[in-house]
Amino acid sequence: MEKGEILNWNEFDNIKILIAEDDIFNREFLVSMFIEYENFEILEAQDGQEAYEKILKYPLDVILLDVHMPKKNGLEIVKDMRKMEKFTSVPVIVITSDKHDKTKALEYGANDFLPKPYDTMELKVRVYNQVKLRKYSQKLEEQVAIKTQQLRAKMSKIEETQRKLLLRIALFSEKQMTDKSSHKVEKIAIYTKYLSQMCGLSADKQEDIYYSSALHNIGFFALPNEIRTKKGQYNARERAEMQKHIGYGSKFLSGLEETDLVRIAKPIISQYSENWDGSGYPKGLKGDEISIYARIVTVCVHFNALTTPRDYREKKVLSDKEVYSSMKSESGITFDPILLNVFLKNFKKFIQIKDKLIKKVSN
C-alpha cells in the first residue's frame, strides 16, 4: 500500500482491467490512475468494437467502459455481454454523466457508473469495490467447486461401498433359497444390465441397475423357512405369506444413504412383482405407474424363471421357442409391451448370455 493510500490493492494477486475510451486524453488519464500498481495489467480500447473483441478474448476483473464510442455503443456492449453466461459476473463501470445513459446502463446489467469529469479518489474507490467483489466471488466459486468435488468423491465412495455390500448380502441371501445352485442373482443382474443398455439407459444407470436388481427379492430372507425353501408351487395361504417379502425387502433399504443406487433399488424391490395391466402385487400398479427399472427387472426375472429347470413344471426344461412364445404372450399383461419388444428383438443375445452363464457355472 502506497503512503497515504487508503485502498489496499496489494491484497489482490493480479488485476486485469480493460479501459475502453475513444478520447485519447481521457483514456491516458484513466490508465495513469492504475499504472503505478505492479499487480495491474491494463488493456486499452479506442473504440467499441475493439473493446468488445478484447472482452471476448481476455479474462477480465473489471471494465471501465465509455458509453459514446465509435463502431459499437457502450450500452450495446453491456447488453450483449450479459446475454452470455460467462460474462454475467464480470463487473462493468460505465463512464457517463447522462442520466438516461445511467438508467439504461444499470438496466442492461452494468454494476456501477462513473461521471465525467473524473474524481480521482471516487474513480479508484469504485474500481476497488468492484474488484474486491469480483475476487471474493471467484474465491467463493473455487471453494464451492472444491467442496462439490470432495462431496462427489465421497458419494462415489459411499455408492461403491453400497454396491459391494448389497451384492454380498444378495448373494448370501440366495444361498438360503431353494435353488441354491442356479446363480439366480448373477444371471438376473447381467440380464438387466444388458436390457437397460438396449433401452438406452446411461452407463451409470446400467451399473446401478446391475447391482440393484440383485436385491429384487431380498425380502425372501425374512420369510419363514418353510416358505423360503419350499419346492413346488404355493397354495393360497403360502402365496399370501410369500407376497409379504415385498414389504420386508422395502424395509431392508430404509435408513440407507439416498444414493442413486438406493433410489433405483427401492422401486425395483417394491414393484418388480407388479404387472403392466395392474394384476400384480402388492399395490396393483399398472402401466407407467411402475418404475422403468422395476419393469426391466420383471422381464429379466421371468426370463430367468423360464430358462431355469423347475421340478414342478409339467415340462421341467423349456425350449428356446417355448420361452419366446411364453414371454410374447404376456405382452401388455405382465410386461410393458414396448420394453418386451426390445427384449424379444434381442432374444437370441439373451439366450447366448444364458448359455454362457450356464457353461460358466458348470465349469
SSE layout and pairings?
Layout: E1 15-20, H1 24-32, E2 40-45, H2 48-57, E3 62-66, H3 74-81, E4 92-95, H4 99-108, E5 112-114, H5 120-174, H6 184-198, H7 203-213, H8 225-228, H9 236-242, H10 245-252, H11 260-271, H12 292-306, H13 320-329, H14 337-345, H15 347-362
Parallel strand pairs: 1-2, 1-3, 3-4, 4-5
Name some characteristics of this structure.
elongated, alpha/beta, Hypothetical protein af1432, 363 residues, 5-stranded parallel sheet, 5 strands
- Here the CATH topology of the largest domain equals Hypothetical protein af1432
Helical percentage: 40-55%
As laid out across the biggest beta sheet, the strand order is 2-1-3-4-5
Overall CATH architecture of the largest domain = Orthogonal Bundle
Low-confidence parts, pLDDT < 50 over ≥5 residues? none
- The best one-word shape is elongated
Q: Mind summarizing the main beta sheet?
A: 5 strands, parallel
Mean pLDDT figure = 86
User: Total number of β-strand segments?
Assistant: 5
Order of helices and strands: EHEHEHEHEHHHHHHHHHHH
**Percentage of residues in DSSP E strands:** 5-15%
* Superfamily (CATH H level) name of the largest domain: Hypothetical protein af1432
Report the total helices: 15
Backbone CA Rg: 34 Å
* Tally of domains: 2
Task: Output the structural class.
Answer: alpha/beta
